[in-house]
Amino acid sequence: MIPYICLCHCQIGMALLDSLLGNEAKRFVKRKDSDAGEAGKALEELRGSLYNELRTSEGAKRQQQRFCGPVVAMTFNFIVSVGIILANKLVMGRVGFKFPIFLTLIHYVTAWLLLAIFKTLSILPVSPPARTTPFTSLFSLGAVMAFASGLANTSLKHNSVGFYQMAKIAVTPTIVLAEFILFRKTISCNKVLALAVVSAGVAVATVTDLEFNLFGAMIAIAWIVPSAVNKILWSNLQQQGNWTALALMWKTTPVTIFFLLALMPWLDPPGVLLFQWDINNSSAILISAILGFLLQWSGALALGATSATSHVVLGQFKTCVILLGGYFLFKSDPGFVSLCGAVTALCGMSVYTSLNLKKPQDNVTKQTLPTLKPKTINQENVVESEAKDTPTVV
After folding, report:
1. Taking a C-beta distance cutoff of 8 angstroms, is the pair 238, 249 a contact?
2. CB neighbours (10 Å) of residue 364?
3. Which of 70, 353, 69, 311 is nearest to 179 (CA)?
4. How high is the pLDDT of residue 31?
C-alpha cells in the first residue's frame, strides 16, 4: 500500500512540474543534454585524432610544428637555459660537486628514464622507419652530443669566463663553414655582416678576462667542432626527415650515455663516490638533471624549428640579456664598454632576425604572383592562322 501511495505522489509531482514548466522547459533541458553530448563527443574525437597523429612519425611531426613554432621553441629554450645556469651554479658552487662529466651523465640518464616513462604511457612520438635514417647518422649524433655536452662543462670548469665565451663565439663561423662543407649551404653577405656584429658585440661585452690555461684551452678548442656539428645534425635530421625532438632523443640518448661513461675516467677527478650524497645535495643535483632534460628537449625543438646558426644567436642573446638584466635589475656594474658591446650585439641580432623573417615573406610573394608564360612561335602561328580563317562580318 505504501509503495502505491509513493508512486501516486511521484506521478502527481511530475504532472505538477510539467504544468509549471511547460514544453519550453522540456526542450531546454533536452537541448542542454544534446549540447553536452556533442561537446563530449567532440572532445573524444579530438583525443582520438591526437592519439592517432602520435602513432605515425608524419603526424607527430605535424603536431610538433603546429604547437611548437620558432617563437615558442626559442622562448622555451631561453627560459630553461637561464634556469639551468642558476641550477648548475648552485651545484658546482655551493654544493661543491666538482665532477662535470658525471653531472652531464646524470642529466642524460634522467632524460632517458623520463623518455622511458613517456614510452610506457604511449605518449612518446613514433620514430620514422629505420630505412629512412641510417643507424650511422643516429650513432654519430649520439657520440657528438656526448662530446659537445661533456666538454662544455669541462671547459667551463678549467677556463675563465672570458676564454669560455671566446670559444662559444667561435662556434658561429664553425657552423657556417661546416654547413658549406657538408651541405653546400651558403648565407647572404648581409647575414654574414650581422653575425660579425653579433660576435664582436658579445666579445666586447663578455670577454673581460683571458686567463690562459693550456689544458683548458685544449678542452675549449676540442669542444668547438663537436658543438657546431651537434647543432647541425639536430637541425638537419628534424627538418629533412620526419623526426620529432623526443623521438630523436629516445634513439640517441643511450649512445650519449655510453660515450659519457668512456669520457668520465679521463676528464673527471677521482672521488665521486666519496661525495656527500645527502638530501639537500641530491635534491639540487636532481633539479639540475630535470632542467637538463628540459634544456635538451627545448634545444632540439628550437633547432628543428629554426637553424643551427639561429640557435647560436639565441645563446648569445641570452648572454646579453643576463648582462643587461643584472645592470638594470640588480644594479651591477659590468662597465660602460661591456654595456656598449651588449647593445651592439642586440642590434646585430635584430638585423639577423629581420633578414631571416624577410626571406620567407619574399618566397610567399613569389609564389602568389601570377606568372605569364611567353607565347612560343608555334602558338603565335596558330593564332594568326585562326584569325585568317575566321570570316569577318560587315
Report:
1. no
2. 10
3. 311
4. 56
Confidence of residue 203 (pLDDT cuts 50, 70, 90): confident
- Nearest 5°: the CA angle 83, 89, 90 is 90
Q: 86-99: b or e for each residue (b if 16 or more CB lie within 10 Å)? A: ebbeebbeebebeb
Cell of 343: 647593445
Question: Is residue 337 over pLDDT 90?
Answer: no
Closest by CA position to 144, among listed 258, 267, 1: 258
DSSP string across 241-270: SS--HHHHHHHHHHHHHHHHHHHHHHHSPS
Q: What is the CA radius of gyration of the chain?
A: 31
Write down the pLDDT at residue 45.
Answer: 60
For 340, the enclosing helix (H) or strand (E) is helix 336-368
Given the C-alpha cell 623521438, which residue does it identify? 247
Is 377 exposed, middle or buried (CB count within 10 Å of its CB: 0-12, 13-18, 19+)?
exposed
CB within 8 A of 210, min separation 6: which ones?
160, 162, 163, 166
Are the C-beta atoms of residues 101 and 154 closer than 8 Å to each other?
A: yes
pLDDT tens figures, 147-165: 999 898 888 778 776 677 7
* DSSP character string of 38-65: HHHHHHHHHHHHHHHHHTSHHHHHHHHH
**Is residue 291 within 8 Å of residue 87, measured between CB atoms?**
yes
Distance (Å, whole) CA 60 – CA 49: 11
Q: Which three cell numbers stand for residue 42?
A: 567532440
C-alpha cell at 282: 641530491
Are 328 and 364 contacting, i.e. CB atoms less than 8 angstroms apart? no
How many other CB atoms are there within 10 angstroms of residue 218's CB atom? Answer: 12
Q: Which of 70, 69, 66 is nearest to 58 (CA)?
A: 66
Q: Report d(CA 282, CA 113) in Å as an integer.
A: 17
Q: Cell numbers 638585423 label which residue?
A: 351
Are 64 and 301 contacting, i.e. CB atoms less than 8 angstroms apart?
yes
Residue 90 DSSP label: I
**Cα–Cα distances in Å, from 107 out to 114, 184, 240?**
11, 34, 28
| Cβ atoms within 10 Å of 101's Cβ, excluding its own | 25
